[in-house]
Structure formats: structure tokens, C-alpha cells
Amino acid sequence: MGTIQSKKDGNISPAKKKPSNYLSKSLYIRGLQCHKSLYLEKFQRDLKSETTAETQALFDSGHMVGEIAQGLFPDGVLIPYIEAKNGVAEQLRLTNEAVKNGAKVIYEASFQYDGIFIKVDILHKGHRGWEIYEVKGGTKLTPVYVDDAALQYYVLTGAGIKVIKTFISYINNGYVRKGALDAQKLFISEDITKQVKEKQSFVIEQLKKQRRMLSGKLPKIDIGPYCSDPYECDFCNHCWKHIPEDSVFDLREKGVDRFALYAKRIIKQKDIPLDLLNKKQRQQVVATVKKQNAVDKQKIREFLKTLSYPLYFLDFETFMSAIPLYDGLKPYQQIPFQYSLHYQKKKGGKLYHTEFLAKPGIDPRKPLLDKMLAAVPEDVCILTYNMSFEKGVLTELATQYPKHKKAIGKWIDNIQDLMVPFRQRDVYFWKFKGSYSIKNVLPVLVPQLSYEGLEIADGGAAMEAYHQMCAAKNNPEKLAQIRENLLAYCKLDTLAMVQILETLGELI
Ligand code: SF4
After folding, report:
1. What are phi and psi of 150, to 5 degrees?
2. I need a labelling partner for 91 at 20 to 30 A (CA). Which of 144, 237, 385, 389 fits?
3. Pairs from 342-350 (Cβ < 8 Å, separation ≥ 24)
């Protein structure tokens, strides 16, 4: 399952490089995105960026989705991944044996044809022949899934398997968990047999092109939209290193074709004709070129008037999972597991702090809500940064715990958003680089506070840390360290808000 190159499709470590005509499913998909990426992956993997916490979390959740999807066809024969020297041959042998023994369902069935080794998530024997079920963690059918399944069909039919149907099983985001997981309802299986068959000549042609390319030198391919489509390429650090700071690619907002400018060798923002840009982009470029800051004092005064004391600065950390872990959850729903709360009873008054971080391995929502109910009065002003996120989390909590709907509703009504003056550019410093994210605003306005040096420095890393915390529940030392890192990160988020608000006051 998934798209990150994995062991199951014969991941090659640099030490065990296979002949250059060897391809796997993920190498083929990589090659469809960019030939240079495929070449580098095969021969210069040292140029690759490290896997990010977010990618790792995606990868881990992919494993879980694959296992749950086996519930679509229970009691199958599992062909395990075998890493030994003769691992591929052994997996092929076990698959062959399962087929000969009359297995009706095989998980991770392994096949090889035309130098390509693949594992099929679920192979099911229907009345007229075999059906491929390729499991995906996404919530809709995408073209790259069809490419993926088309290669599987090519290998299986080439290996002599009579495939009559090919399906993509993806996550049904309308599913709400109630009791035990129901794989039949959690997944939607879409029949893509027709598309897959139509793609067969394309597969043959692409394999030929990829192999021809691999037998030569590194292809000369410049950066392009394909660097992030359909996946973020992990060689960007290498290929994009000639792009300077404040380039056309740092322009915010839609409406400008960055690659068209780049093709005309317009790379720095200062070289962009201003009439191509919208108002906000023009403001960004002019501010960058002139190193200018802009502060609309009247607008800031108006914003500050919307706040009242006592003032509570709130930030949630959440995790999400393709598989709803608890009752009442949908796939990919944000589940709050932590909050930090700074508060001041009066303007410029003493700063108090309180926080919550769930214990690992439990549904964190109720303990979090209970602690918050005890800590936050109903009628106070709550300040967040990007309030739609906090409002969304609170709305889901109100739905899950209707007894507290009234109190939560009042919190929601009283939320204000510190991001507003930055998003509206009432305050714009050229060093924000067009961004209004707290991660960009904080180091410019409050340089003494920084996320640098923290083990966890963004929401994606916090999410991954939470998963690690759950995995480490029997390792008290590791658990304590992760908890400390998470608490430090979330506390900084609300302290950052306190100090940004103070700075806004100073600006006027
Ligand atoms: S960064 Fe872009 S050009 Fe470089 S290998 Fe990846 S997709 Fe290709």
C-alpha cells in the first residue's frame, strides 16, 4: 500500500544495487513523475532528503490501512515480506504454493515478470478468475492509483495469472465508527478494470523509456511542476539548490505561473513585471525589494478592540488517522490530544499557564475536554492563531459530548483570531516573505522566542511524536522525553501569541 518506496516492492539499498533494468512499482511510479528522480533513486540515493516526520506518519498509517483492508476478504493467506538474500524467490514460491493449494484470498501475493517484482495488497479468487484489490489510504480515486494498478495488472497477467477485475479500495470519508471497525463500510472499492486494460500499451512504452534512460547518463531535467505533483519529490533539496531566496517561487497567492516566469529566466522577485501580480503579491515584491515594513495602526487598534480581559490564549495539538480509532470518529478527523493555555486576568497583568497532554493509548478527547471545562470559564475571550482550526476541533467535541454543547458553543462564540491582522496585511514586514503563519511571523516580531532548537518544531512533528508516545507507552524514559518535548512545543505556541499581541500593542 502507499507510494513511498517500501520493502514490499523490493526496495533497493545502495549496498544491494540490482541491475539497472530492475524496476519496482514505486520506481515505475517515480519514473512517471520524473525520469531524473528515478535515476537518482537508483544510482545516487545519497542526494535524497531525509524522510520527514509527516511522511513517516503517512507511511506508518499506510501499514495500518493495509492490515484493516484485509477484513474486506477475511481468512486469507499472508505472504510475508522476506528480507533474506533469496527473499524474493521465497515470496514467489510461497505465493505459487498458495495458488496451487486453492487459496481463495492471498494478502501480499508476490509476482515477478519482466524484471519487476510486486506484491498485491489483496488477491481474491472470484467465480471467473482472480481480482486485484489495491488498497490506498486516500479518500478518492486518483490517476496515479490507476497507473499503479495498471503495472500490477501487467505483471500478474505476464506471470500467467488470469486477472478478470482490478479494483482500487480507498477510504470512505463518510464512514463514522460505531463499535468494531467495519472494513466493508470503511473502504470503497472502485472497479477500474477498463482503465487498467486501456493503459497496458502505455505501461509497456513507459517501461521501455525508463529502461533506456537508466542505461544512459543522468538525464538533464530542470525543475518543473512535477517536482511536487503527484508527490513531493525527495530530491528537491538537490535540484532546487540554485533557486535563490526571495525567488518567484516564494511568491504567495495564486494567479501567477511561477514556472512560466522561470522559463523566461525571471527568477528573482525583483525582476517580475509588477503588472503581472495581484495587489498582495505586488505588496510582497515591493516590500522585499525595498526591505519595507507596513503597519496600519488604525486597523490594529480596531482589532485590539475586539479583545477583552480575562484573555485566554489557546492552542490545540491534534493527530489524525485514516482509520478511525474511536467511536464517533470519521477517517482523517482531527483528534485533539494536547492543549496549551496562557491567560491574563487584565491587560499587561500576570501571565498564568495551564496545559493538558493525554496519556498514551487512550481516547484523549474526554479527559482533554474535562480539563478544559475546569480551566476555561464560559464567557471569556479566547485568542487563537488561525481560529478555524480551534473552532473545528471544539465543534467536533460538542458533537461528541452534547452535554457540554452549551459551554463549548460559548467558547466558540468568543474566539478571536490573532492571525487576522497578518492575513489582511494590516501588519506586513518584508521578512514575513508573504506568509502570515505564526512560524514566519514570530521570529521577525519576537526574535528572542524561537522554535529553533526544539525537538518538535511544527504540528506535523507533534503528530508524529504523539504516535511515538503511544508506541513507547511501556518505555517510561522515552515516554517522559517525548512528553517533555511536546509540552515545550505547545507551550511555545501560546507564549508566542502572548508576545505577538504585546508587539502589536507596541507598534501602535
Ligand atoms: S526535484 Fe524535480 S527535477 Fe529533481 S528529481 Fe525531483 S522531480 Fe525531478
Report:
1. -65, -40
2. 144
3. 342/312, 342/313, 342/494, 342/495, 342/497, 342/498, 343/310, 343/311, 343/312, 343/313, 343/380, 344/309, 344/310, 344/311, 344/498, 345/309, 345/310, 346/309, 346/310, 347/309, 347/311, 349/309
Centre of ligand 1 from the C-alpha of residue 269, in Å: 22
Centre of ligand 1 to C-alpha 239, Å, is 6
Average pLDDT over residues 130-142: 97
User: To the nearest whole percent, how much of the chain has pLDDT over 90?
Assistant: 84
The amino acid occupying position 478 is K
Q: How far is CA 370 from CA 115, 356, 379, 397, in A?
A: 58, 10, 17, 11
Please give the number of the atom of ligand 1 that sits closest to the Cα of 37: 5
Q: Kindly report, residue by residue over 418-465, the tens digit of the pLDDT.
A: 999 999 999 999 999 999 999 999 999 999 998 888 888 888 889 989
CA distance 272 to 339: 43
Spatial separation of the C-alpha atoms in residues 211 and 205, rounded to whole Å: 10
- Name the grid cell of 457: 518544531
Let me know if domain 7-213 sits in CATH 1.10.8.
no
Can you tell me the distance from the alpha carbon of 206 to that of 217, in angstroms, rounded to the nearest whole number? 18
CA 166 to chain centre: 27
Candidate of 5, 45, 226 to mutate for ligand 1, largest count of ligand atoms within 8 Å of Cβ: 226
Cα 502 to Cα 328: distance, rounded to the nearest angstrom: 40
Sequence-distant (6+) residues with CB within 8 A of 137 are 1, 2, 58, 61, 62, 65, 170, 171, 322
Q: Are 56 and 466 in contact (CB under 8 A)?
A: no
User: 227 in ligand 1 pocket by Cβ < 6 Å?
Assistant: yes
Atom of ligand 1 nearest to the CA of 223: 3
**Pairing status of strand 311-319 against strand 335-344:** antiparallel
Ligand 1 centre to CA of 216 (Å) is 17
Helix (H, G, I), strand (E, B) or coil at 166: strand
User: Under 8 Å CB-to-CB from 444, ≥6 apart: which residues?
Assistant: 429, 431, 432
| Per-residue pLDDT, 470 | 87
Decide yes or no: CATH 3.30.420.10 for domain 292-508. Answer: yes
Domain segments of the chain: what residues? 7-213, 246-281, 292-508
Ligand 1 center to residue 262 CA distance, Å? 15
Query: CA separation (Å) from 364 to 63, 193, 338?
Result: 23, 42, 8
Task: State the pLDDT at residue 454.
Answer: 85
- Tell me: pLDDT of 11 over 70: no
Phi-psi sector, 260: left (phi>0), alpha (psi -120 to 50), beta: alpha
As a whole number of angstroms, the distance between CA 74 and CA 166 comes to 18
pLDDT at 15 over 80: no
Atom of ligand 1 nearest to the CA of 233: 6
DSSP state of 46: G
Yes or no: say if 417 and 387 are a contact pair by the CB < 8 Å rule. Answer: yes
